[in-house]
Amino acid sequence: MKCLFAMNLLVVVLCALLCLSVWCSGQVTETDNIDASPMEEAEQAALYSAIQGFVGNWWNGSDLYPDPCGWTPIQGVSCDIFDGLWYVTSLSIGPIHDNSLSCDPYMEFRPQLFELKHLKTLSFFSCFISPHSHPVTIPSNNWERFGGSLESLEFRMNPGLVGQVPSSFGGLTKLQSLVLLENGLSGELPGNFGNLTSLKRLVLAGNRFTGRIPDSFGGLSQLLILDLSRNLLSGSLPLTFGGMTSILKLDLSNNQLQGSLPSGFSYLKNLTLLDLRNNKFSGGLTKSLAEMYSLEEMVLSNNPIGGDLQGLEWHNLKKLVVLDLSNAGLVGEIPESIVGLKRLRFLGLSNNGLTGNLSPRLADLPCLSTLYLHGNNLTGELQLPESFYGKLGWRFGAWNNPNLCYPIGLISTGRVPFGVRPCQEGERG
């Protein structure tokens, strides 16, 4: 009887040990089955060759990273499983992290890059850095092979990346983010970018693009961010801009754009940022500007816009925080309706031809911390309260208004507005 009990106990112990061994070896969990999945051989070979083209021939991926989607991951590479096999879904080249792959000065795009079948994200950061000794152009062919998968394409801080943007980018119909920031790219913007109807972010700032903004951009109805700043773009804005009904931020600053501001701006009901500074816009302030009810920042400075401030219904822009119309060729008086902008923090009206008295009600703006009025033809006695000058300090600018003066009583308080003369006895507005 004792022997039988001992044998039964031995069987139980052996079974328990066997189950524990199987559990520890990773043969029963779904997650571990995924980890053990192989990578398609052609995909792995394409990955090694593509990376070697960017970092140099010294790099031997098969020796350094024999399991790039498993236990020997490559920095900047992410993978996912399709039909039981690992495939690359994200590839980032450049010194993004401390242990990222460093770019070779003579890096090249190899055709194997376009053999990555499920690539969703591709980015290059500060890789092409020698515009004179080793300029690199973006290959014009094969991008259509990413048409069914690529969702994000970025080239950031690559001064050695020169030449035109391939028109084949227009075939990347799944693309949601296209960022070409601070490179050496030039030429005209491809009109077929209008085919990228899934785009939510289009950033082409800090290059040397020329010519007009294509009319087709107005068809990007899902676009949230459009940044074409710091280029050499010219011509008038497309009348189709009103079609970008989802847009939140529109930055066209520091170009050579001209003509009137389009009435289609009135359709941009979700826009929070409008930055058109440092261009050549003219034709006055269109009434459509006051119909962008979500606007928080309106920056139109350094444009020969002309006209006056009276025609806009400023009270509609209740969310406005920044209003910069400096050096915009404006004339006439400052409308008192601006006092209705209760969230306003920055008001820049300097270097215009504004006239008339300054309303003391501007001091009632609860959030105002900067007010620049210098370089105009304002007249009369400043009637802002003494506490207002103390609150703003140097952020209140009213100099270079020859016929503007401040009350003599301010002299004793030490809160005298810089560059403004004291009123003479009997002098008023």
From TrEMBL:
Gene Ontology CC entries for this record: plasma membrane
Gene3D superfamilies tied to this protein: Ribonuclease Inhibitor (3.80.10.10)
Pfam families hit by this protein: LRR_1, LRR_4, LRR_8
GO biological process: response to other organism
First and last residue of the signal peptide: 1-26
The organism's place on the tree of life at top rank: Eukaryota
Presence of the UniProt keyword Membrane in the record: yes
Location in the cell: Cell membrane
Key words, A-Z: Cell membrane, Leucine-rich repeat, Membrane, Repeat, Signal
Main localization of the protein described in the UniProt heading: membrane
Matches recorded under PANTHER family: OS05G0588300 PROTEIN, PROTEIN TOO MANY MOUTHS
The protein's name in its UniProt record: Leucine-rich repeat-containing N-terminal plant-type domain-containing protein
Source species of the chain: Turnera subulata
Species classification: Eukaryota, Viridiplantae, Streptophyta, Embryophyta, Tracheophyta
